[in-house]
Amino acid sequence: MTNYFSCLKPVRSAADIPKILRRTPFGRLLEYHNCGQPLGKYDKAKLLICMCMDNRKQLRLPDNFAYILRTGGGNIRYSEFKISYAVGIGGVRHIVLIAHDNCGMVNLASKRGAFVSGLVKNAGWTHKRAMEHFLTYAPLFEIGNEIEFVLAEARRLNLKYPRVKVLPMFYRMADKKLYLIKQVQGSAV
What we know:
By secondary structure, the chain is α/β, with parallel strands linked by helices. Helix content is 33%, strand content 19%. It has a single domain, classed as 3-Layer(aba) Sandwich (Beta-carbonic Anhydrase, Chain A), CATH 3.40.1050.10.
């Protein structure tokens, strides 16, 4: 993707939310987080939010509104049982996948030295053990380009759970807002 942010659609007010998303859990998420809408009351989760574990990202949500699954890079490939639980037991029919800029799971190879030395220093691991750990797991958790990754994951989950609506979104660190991803080659909003 050449221009990283060219496919992002800002949501500054409820009027910016596409009609198809209004009065859905996706629209409510945008209203609560981006627009400062008063927080509603919920007895049951309406949404599953899958997002990165990055501590710089916090969402403004009412209690009980959503299940939240946080993993490195928002990579949920190895968390599908948890997704199935939210759908099967929790009754969730809407899933939002949230990518963000400056994600640590992009270009993991460049972080190998810091990763290994951090495990040696902070966890007491041997250099060999830390290196083997990195080499085993980094390829599984590398996400590549954040936007391309979240679009591909949304397509994959839409096929896996055909009665559940899955929508990719993007969180920009600069303004701490959620963005819709404009249609790119037949996907997204």
